[in-house]
Amino acid sequence: MKTLRGLGVSAGVAVGPAHVIFPGHIKVTRTRIPPEEIEEEIRRLRQAMETTARNIRRAQERIPENMGEVRAIFEAQRFLVEDPSLVAEASEIIRQGFNAEWALLKVLRRYQKIFSELPDAYFRERFRDLEGLVEMIIGALRGEKPLGGPERAIIVARDLSPADTINLRPENTLAFVTEAGSRTSHTAIVARSLGIPAVVAAKGALEEISPGDLLAVDGTTGEIFVDPDPETIREFEQRERRFRKLQSRLHQVADLPAVTRDGRRVVLRANLDLPEEIPYAREYGAEGVGLFRTEYLYVAREDLPPEELLFETYRQVVEAVAPHPVTIRTLDLGGDKFASVLNLPREINPALGLRAIRLCLREEALFRTQLRAILRASAYGKVKIMFPMISGVTEFLRARNLVEEIKQELAQEGHPFDPEIPVGAMIEVPSAVAMADLLAKEADFFSIGTNDLIQYTLAIDRGNQEVSELYEPLHPAVLRFIWTTVEAAHRAGIPVAMCGEMAGELLYIPVLVGLDLDELSMPPQSIPEVKLFIRELSYRQCRQVVEKLLRLTCQDEVREALAEVFGPQLQRFSKSLWFE
Ligand code: PEP
Ligand code: MG
To answer: Quick one: pLDDT at residue 133?
Structure first.
């Protein structure tokens, strides 16, 4: 048994076989094939390709109607596997006396070179489809079961792109293990939202884990056991039972309000990356959706989503969440959220580049389509619009004016919409904090995106594990920025929410309650726990502590001060969740 350690970013445990995704270095050995066996080797290749084509067709049939982007990925792979040139090129290499696996890899390398030289980012990115396909064929040659089949597996990869994560079907994914990533990387966020245990930043995972190895993964502690012994498996069964017990206890509180002992009410809402997560939001007692990320409709598709598709999707979400509100965040592409369809230029510093609201204001037609769809959906429930990456007042007003223009357009066309739709700004760029007092006069609400606010405030790349230890939500600079934002909002009489990952962490809850946030939005699974904890807190005490924290010099002092006041209570609380 081998033990690996990473960062547990999505709670839960899983025991199951590994499905390893090798990025660009699929491991195969080169074997010489004697001339008399060459035809047989080609037949073996053809058979494996037929099996793969069949598996892709079956997987395609099982994809729900509303997941058109995923269907598109499978469609592309099916096209490639049925294309005669792949088998022809591989057969040619087999005829030179090599095994089928090696031949496929050689063909793949040839294409890698061609793809990497393509000027269009979208087509360069399509190499991933081919790579995934070759992996499937090699799997079939080895007699492995495909991931898309009924078999359930733990996904082991270097990293997963947003498209990969959507592509992997949640019901077949027991857990994620990735070598790269951090608490706020896309894999972590999606895993938490879907309730799939995940360990990221697991160094050496691809070296130590082979396809099919039995793994035991704990998404809370970050432990990974390769080939676990019977004792470890028994222990994992126990961990699993304990986790289930905890979950069921948490469900029981779904309908209680989040209110401190001395009467301070905090609204708890859910973050959604995909509409499929709505049932979780309801089940865990979210009072609506505080952040609906809309990027998924744009990634992994070859064309821009039409207005009708966007409208239908938003309408479904709004109706499913009613009578609670849904805050729809406009497109936040660029940076770590890559969209091949837009053919974005490669940037040296994408986090500081053409992303989010900047991109939308540049590509106005694209933005208008999305705004029209959101406004039209607002006729079916309570909708709020939120702009990401706002850096100042002018930028916010430009976006807001566009909403006004579109309202007039829709009114003329006879489309119903909510004329009072609230329009808010995400506060995730330091310059927006500096301008918060003036911005608060123009916006109907604020929502603090700490994932980015911490990144830009501390100059720490949120996805870079080399500096992940420096990514510190409790840095006094971050706390001061949050406080400045809240004060400005409240002075202007507008509410302020937080929708970054910080809002769903127990340790930070007393701080956020003391910082006077009106609303916290988080992965649905975190809601019950946060709610129970808030019900044990005293707002007065949280305020007093925060006043002290805002005067401290460094994060270590903040952590110490917090541990001193809330440490024992937090420990008691966590224990009570596990054992009562
Ligand atoms: C954030 O930055 O905190 C946020 C909520 O948005 P995202 O993680 O999608 O950038
Ligand atoms: Mg952000």
So the answer is: 78
Ligand nearest to the CA of 389: 2
3-state secondary structure at position 24: coil
Per the CB < 8 A criterion, the answer to whether 180 and 465 are in contact is: yes
Cβ-Cβ contacts under 8 Å for 539 (sequence gap 6 or more): 260, 261, 262, 263, 264, 513, 514
Name the phi and psi angles at 72, rounded to 5: -60, -40
**Sign of the dihedral defined by the CA atoms of residues 9, 13, 18, 19, in that order:** negative
Nearest bound ligand to CA 450?
1
Give me the pLDDT at residue 150, please.
37
Binding residues for phosphoenolpyruvate: 293, 329, 451-452, 462
162 pocket-lining for ligand 1 (C-beta < 6 Å): no
Residue-level pLDDT at 122 = 60
pLDDT digits (tens, 9 = 90+) for 440-456: 999 999 999 999 999 99
Q: Which of 428, 429, 447, 512 to mutate to test the pocket of ligand 1 (most atoms within 8 A of CB)?
A: 428
- For the question of residue 186 being annotated catalytic, the response is yes
User: By the 8 A CB rule, do 319 and 381 touch?
Assistant: yes
The residue nearest atom 6 of ligand 1, judged by CA position, is 449
Domain 1-232: assigned CATH number = 3.50.30.10
What residues of the chain score a pLDDT lower than 50?
Answer: 66-70, 147-150
Among 324, 360, 475, 499, the one annotated catalytic: 499
Which of 186, 324, 360, 475 is an active site residue? 186
Q: Where in the chain is the domain with CATH 3.50.30.10?
A: 1-232
**According to CATH, where is 3.20.20.60 located in the chain?**
253-424+496-579
Fold that domain 253-424+496-579 belongs to in CATH: TIM Barrel (3.20.20)
